[in-house]
What does this fold into?
Amino acid sequence: MDDFFAARSQMALSLGFHIIYACIGMVMPFFMAVSHFRWLRTHDVVYQNLTKAWSKGVAIFFATGAVSGTMLSFELGLLWPQFMEHAGPIFGMPFSLEGTAFFIEAIALGFFLYGWNRFNPWFHWFTGVVVGISGLASGILVVAANSWMNSPAGFDYVNGQYLNIDPMAAMFNRAWLSQSIHMTIAAFAATGFAVAGVHALMLLRGKNVVFHQRAFAIAAAFGAVAAILQPLSGDFSAKDVAKRQPAKLAAMEALFQTEKPAALVLGGVPDEKNQRVDYAIKVPGMLSFLAHGNFQQEVQGLDRIPRADRPPVLVPHFAFQIMVGLGTFLMAVSALYFFALWRKKAWLRSKWLLRLFVAAIPLGFIAVEAGWTVTEVGRQPWIIYGVMRTRDAVTPMPGIQYSFYVFTAVYLVLSFLVIFLLSRQIQMVPKLYDRPDRPLQPVLA
Amino acid sequence: MHYVVVAYLCLALLLYLVLGGADFGAGIIELFTPHRHRRVARQTMYQAIGPIWEANHMWLIIAVVILFVAFPRIYSVMSVSLHIPLVIMLLGIIARGTAFVFRSYDAVKDNMQGVYSRIFTYSSFVTPLFLGIIAASVLSGTINLQATTFLDAYVFSWLHWFSVAVGFFTVALCGYLASVYLIGEATDEINRQRYIAKTMRLNIIAVACGALVFAAAHFQGVPLLNWIFGNAVGVTAVVLATLSLGLQWYLLLHGHDIIPRLLAGFQATMILLAIGYKHFPDFIILRGGGTLSLFTQNAPKSTMHALGLALLLGSVLILPALGYLYYSFQKKEEFAEH
It folds into this structure.
């Protein structure tokens, strides 16, 4: 493993894990706040128990999200010092605001977790809401920083010098909005389905039915709304990428030759050597429409990109297909769920619907990872699109593969422990959270 | 705005040492507490630092962000030359941050608690050790940008007697800070007396480690004496720290809780001031005498301006909330729920 590849792998690994922890840590506080709100309004003790149970999850994910995020703030320098030396002052604005948001989140979390029976109940609830809002803000800000790498703005690049820096223009670069919306909705969809799925699993086992039903209803509502909104933001993102990063779009779609009109390629195996896609289904004119809103328009292929500036095709293409496929599946499940809520209440207690949710537990996160793969691999060979190559940014220190091995082990252990802890939380629901000796109110369908 | 950014960097580093340091210290104390007292020690510590735990670590993030936004060259030189100790420190931060939370929130209390505790206590020792090593390496003139061998560039930049001595001094200082803090958090008199005794012991160890730092500096050729005693501010800081140390012992023996806490923080501040004043605004001293200064290696004006505004805005939001957090949880009541 050469150092450059090791550095890229380590970064990918760190981001890959951090994204999962961060998404859950960012979204779960909202579930918790809804349940908390219901407890305060209805005094139904199940909601109080649920809020407490979820808050443990939030604490665990906040901690792992925080340390893996700290890691990343160092890794940017440890692995890509050349990049940070030039990019830091330009794209640092969202990071400095994110520091504030993250700090507020940590403070609010301290209030929330340790504040039961200490503060006015509504103030206590409010601190939980602040955890959610500040978490969301930091997520959006970090994505804004990443979007700058895809759409550099706020400086002039003259003879290798980065001049006329404007941090605000850098933050509000052309990609920030589409990327942030897409990522935020993805976080809600993935977390909503994962949490709902876990509770669906417990419902299938017939344990603590009321507790898990209420949990399921809240998480599923968030997940389903997000999954239905996501294609809209996906369309917005696709049009944006088509304009800003035609090479990335071409890689995603395995569009080796410029086409007019361009067909949408579904599935298929890109053959980079012979510049063609085998076994694909092609929908004529569809790519032109998705990219430019017009069935006739030309879509730029990789042939228009200098060979040295072309991203790899295989990985972004497969990742994109996976993301879209899974997103479509989640959207379909969501539609079924809403139909059940609206017309077929009996479905809500049926095994098949719960099983669909169980199956969906990992899918949202696989889609999130696939989406990031598209964004990051599709940007290659650039670390700052069109300005600095990833290869030129890597640390001069040799032996990065050992660092990669160590951090791989750390992340695997961490993930194993988080899953272990969560399974123990769920196991303990009957003893700690959903106590039969506490009064329950009548079950609502 | 330049001064605002520099002031916040210094403040973040100082607060990380004092508040984060007390956190590290809690783990260090647990490591050296005999088995039979550990449960109580853990309980006291958990109640004292649980609510403020996550917030204390934000100071490090703030410092790192300020470094890479405003002083990118300094950040990148540290990232390259001090790669190895930074990675070890990071592993320590990951291990402690997660082990502490896992220990608190694991729904089942069984043998795993011992595993979390071991990870937490060992990493509480390793993290400040390497934090001290990194801080010492930055100033000791061992970072070599012209190095041609791996050892010279990536190992001897940080591994030497002076940095190791500073590392151990940092560990002792963190233990001392935590111990002073916990006196006021102890729930009963026996426990309180135990922390007072511990504070005194750790104070002696910290002073002894301080002496080791001077010895190592002499051995290594680091002009530490000159740094501290070569200017009026350094001398004053040392005199004030020494006086406050005397007052500290007096107050501890006479049963005060809160003032010793402030005095310990004051001592840590004076130590940083004594070292920092001489070098300010130099942040990294390179082998061969070059320096990377906070006033020459900074980002362009527009960036400094934006960052300064962001920091000011952030502190308007953060400081009152943080103050209220510390205030709300400083009382020694039993916690209703964790």
In short: Chain B touches chain A through 66 residues (CB under 8 Å). Residues 189-220 of chain B form the longest helix (32 residues).
